[in-house]
Write a structure and sequence with these properties.
The complex is a heterodimer. Chain A is built from 16 helices and nine strands. Chain A is α/β, with parallel strands linked by helices. In chain A, a hairpin with a 3-residue loop joins strand 6 and strand 7. Classes of the chains: A alpha/beta, B alpha/beta.
Chain lengths: 315, 506
């Protein structure tokens, strides 16, 4: 069990703790976690794909030793899938079973009024928590020791869904008509929302969140990340490949390589026992970092130039 | 604390970062947690709370650096902060010294020194430059040499001689308030405001004193006079700096807003070349707004009333028990737009903005095909996809704007190239002045287009009373258009494209 109060004392401590979990982050990111923890505000993370948005939530969960509850958003996601649903099957089954006992209950009841009165004694059992199937959002509220809730790719969901999120994000509660308002049991969860910016998130949602933008890391930070993720790779090669990737990002590509691609590439190069970059090697492994044929073709011509530039750069 | 923050937020709003009251409250709580001590920490923290898009973050960064470079000294809130009231006030004392004496010590303190924090930057800049000079001069003093001086009598003189930069800054800020320096609008007002501020700080008294001292007999008094003169110059410099900063914070942006407002309505052909960048920004903003407005409609087709016939039909296979429901859906098709732009000299400027606008709308109008012509028509869609907007437009204009206008030929080319692609969902937008050099009109091709397309919209950059005069054949062409509009400012453009989108989704 990590000492949470120690970790959250300062931004530097958070950063160090993240590093222990092999997540290298900038001050900005650590500050976001720090504020999120102390202010209990959700964090909306935006940035190009593959810069570690989801990873941040996962690592935070690890760091605080909290369970991670993840809600993957997609078009058509609604409250039945995100918040709660009644267990229809169970309800149906129980009614069938109860049908027989019902007669006993109603025996001797005179008239409709009395029957209804007796039925009322049952209470609204069918619409109680027994029959409630909690979905990620409700589950996150009910978690006893708090949790990390990750709402992934919020931009993929519908507009209506965003409004659904507002209640849980600002007050950490959910209203279920049949039961009432369910509040967070203990510690309100730490909420992370990620977005790839395929569409604008509404102002209402943005207002309730801290807004963190994670850009591509600079040369130094990316080297550190690679070092943390693929420690076996020799330092010189690491410098070269990261520099190469940084150069690629400057080019006009359909999809620029992200950190995850850099990591994959590092692993590939390691597997090939490479110890420095050369144009042929790059050409052969280009499909690891570039995901569109068009990009690969475009880059082909520049490979030797970039490789040389990277190799001759000051160490 | 609240005061500074509120001022900062005002500046942010000026810089087009939208900050709601709720966010202001958030910033306040964040501030309580973070404190003013560590500048980067503060910057990072507020960056999470206040700006909410990438563009805003950039604006925020600039505003933060500008604003907190000169921290308002009259902000007593630091002492109100319960956690750090003690050491802050100590610090204030330290800084007074550091700043007042300009002994690099306070100024160049290590960046990381949390104690100096936010004030640091200011004392660094100021402390190093100005007061140091001051001291140097003091030592170089030749004509009278160092020696005893009499006491200054005027209020401002006392302040100046007391070497207390903090008090001076307070005076400066007060004077700034008094003359409402935040109201500064254009850069030519800088001198005026600087003078007013000097006056408000009691310049005349000081001048009088300096004059008196100059005529005094005793050396110490004259020495004081010289010293005061020097310090007056220095103060003037400071005030000018102060006004400059206020100008950058408050006026630069409101001036820009003014210009933007103006540009929206001004005739596009009158736009000066240097405003193009700004115009592009505006176009982008307008397009973005339209895009978000209409992106929302996309989802409507999911709801709707029960489609009874279809439901019955579909449920026949289940013996007529109806449980597979079908709904009437509203299909929303995105407009398919063919934009035909006359790029001959007379309308080239309009075409530029028209194309700019259409392309900025990519998000909601994925199918825009553009054509450019002066005499021969050519498709430039691909050119636009491959190049960035500015290049593309310049290339288009360069390549196609050569010949003399020939609408007949252009229509002919259009028919040959892609009339077959025009269907009843297509909107054709033609941008041109319909000045055909008395050439063949071939309006029947336009009629054909009119019959096939959903809409044909003709945008004419000339004002209405110039239509049909001279070689303009607007009337002939107008007969085969669903809509003919005058369009020569960004406002017009926005309206036309907005209508287009509205009709597409209705």
């Amino acid at each position: 069990m990590p000492d949470i109060s120690n970790i959250t004392q300062s931004v530097a401590a958070i950063k160090a703790a993240f590093e222990e979990h092999r997540y290298i982050c900038s001050d900005q990111i650590a500050t976001a976690v720090y504020l999120a923890f102390h202010l209990r505000k959700p964090v909306l993370i935006e940035g190009p794909p593959g810069v570690g948005k989801t990873e941040l939530a996962k690592t935070t969960a690890e760091l605080f030793a909290l369970p991670l509850i993840r809600l993957q958003c997609y078009e058509g996601l609604d409250e039945a899938k995100a918040i709660y649903e009644w267990k229809y099957g169970k309800q149906l089954l129980y009614t069938q079973v109860l049908k027989e006992t019902l007669e006993e209950v109603l025996q001797g009841a005179k008239g409709f009024k009395q029957s209804v009165a007796r039925l009322h004694e049952f209470g609204d059992i069918f619409f109680s928590e027994e029959f409630l199937e909690p979905r990620p959002l409700l589950k996150a509220l009910k978690e006893k020791d708090g949790c990390v809730l990750l709402i992934d790719e919020v931009d993929k969901s519908d507009h209506e869904f965003e409004s659904l999120l507002l209640e849980i994000l600002s007050d950490f509660q959910v209203s279920i008509p049949e039961i009432g308002t369910v509040k967070a049991v203990a510690e309100p969860p730490m909420v992370f929302l990620t977005s790839n910016n395929t569409r604008e998130i509404s102002d209402a949602l943005k207002r309730r969140c801290l807004h963190l933008y994670i850009p591509f890391p600079d040369l130094e930070l990316e080297q550190k990340i690679i070092h943390a993720r693929v420690p076996e790779i020799p330092p010189e090669l690491r410098r070269q490949m990261v520099a190469f990737i940084q150069e690629l990002r400057e080019l006009d590509l359909k999809k620029v390589p992200a950190i995850s691609e850099t990591i994959d590439w590092a692993r590939t190069l390691l597997l090939l026992h490479a110890d420095s970059l050369d144009p042929d090697l790059v050409r052969d492994t280009l499909n690891v970092i570039l995901k569109f044929q068009e990009d690969i073709v475009n880059v082909q011509g520049e490979i030797s130039a970039i490789t040389n530039k990277v190799k001759n750069a000051k160490r | 604390m609240e005061r500074t923050l509120a001022n900062f937020i005002q500046v942010l709003r000026n810089a087009e970062v939208r900050v709601s009251p709720a966010e202001t409250l958030d910033a306040m709580t964040a501030l309580e947690l973070v404190g003013y001590a560590d500048r980067t920490f503060l910057k990072n923290s507020l960056a999470l709370v206040l700006p909410k898009t990438v563009d805003e973050k950039v604006a925020y960064d600039a505003a933060f650096d500008q604003f907190f470079r000169f921290e308002e000294v009259n902000n007593k809130a630091l002492q109100n902060d319960p956690n750090r009231s003690g050491d802050e006030s100590d610090q204030e004392g330290d800084e007074q010294q550091g700043e007042g004496n300009g002994e690099g010590g306070g100024g160049s303190a290590a960046e990381t020194d949390p104690a100096n924090g936010k004030r640091k930057s200011k004392s660094k800049q100021k402390g190093k430059q100005k007061p140091n000079n001051l001291q140097d001069e003091e030592e170089e003093e030749a004509d009278l040499g160092p020696g005893p001086m009499t006491e200054a009598k005027s209020e401002l003189g006392k302040l100046l001689m007391a070497n207390s930069r903090v008090e001076l800054a307070v005076r400066m800020a007060q004077a700034g308030e008094a003359v409402n320096v935040k109201g500064i609008q254009i850069f030519t007002q800088k001198g005026l405001y600087a003078r007013r501020m000097m006056d408000a700080m009691g310049l005349s008294e000081l001048n009088e004193e300096i004059g008196d001292l100059g005529e005094a007999r005793q050396v110490p008094a004259r020495r004081l006079g010289q010293e005061l003169k020097r310090r007056r110059e220095w103060l003037r410099e400071e005030v000018r700096d102060y006004v400059e900063r206020q100008f950058l914070l408050h006026a630069d942006v409101s001036g820009k807003r003014l210009r933007e407002e103006l540009l929206r309505t001004v005739k596009l052909s009158n736009v000066e070349h240097r405003s193009f960048r700004l115009i592009q920004e505006i176009v982008y903003k307008m397009a973005k707004r339209l895009a978000t407005m209409h992106a929302r409609r996309k989802k409507v087709f999911k709801r709707g009333a029960l489609n009874v016939p279809r439901t019955l039909r579909r449920n026949m296979q289940y013996d007529g028990s109806i449980f597979d429901l079908h709904w009437k859906s509203v299909k929303i098709d995105r407009p398919k737009v063919f934009a035909i732009c006359d790029v001959s000299g007379s309308v080239a400027n309009y075409a530029r903005f028209m194309l700019m606008f259409l392309y900025s709308l990519e998000e909601v109008m994925p199918k825009v095909r553009s054509f450019a012509f002066s005499s021969d028509l050519a498709e430039v869609t691909e050119l636009f996809e491959r190049n960035d907007l500015e290049d593309a437009i310049n290339k288009t204009l360069h390549e196609y704007s050569g010949g003399s206008t020939d609408y007949g030929q252009a229509l002919l080319d259009f028919k040959r190239m892609c009339l077959d692609d025009v269907d009843n969902r297509t909107t054709i937008i033609i941008l041109g002045d319909a000045r055909n050099n008395y050439g063949e009109n071939r309006q029947l091709i336009l009629k054909e287009m009119y019959d096939r397309a959903k809409r044909v919209i003709w945008l004419n950059p000339e004002s209405k009373n110039a239509w049909n005069a001279g070689d303009s054949v607007m009337r002939t062409y107008g007969a085969y258009c669903h809509q003919v509009e005058e369009c020569n400012s960004l406002m017009h453009l926005e309206r036309v494209v907005g209508n287009l989108l509205k009709q597409a989704s209705a």
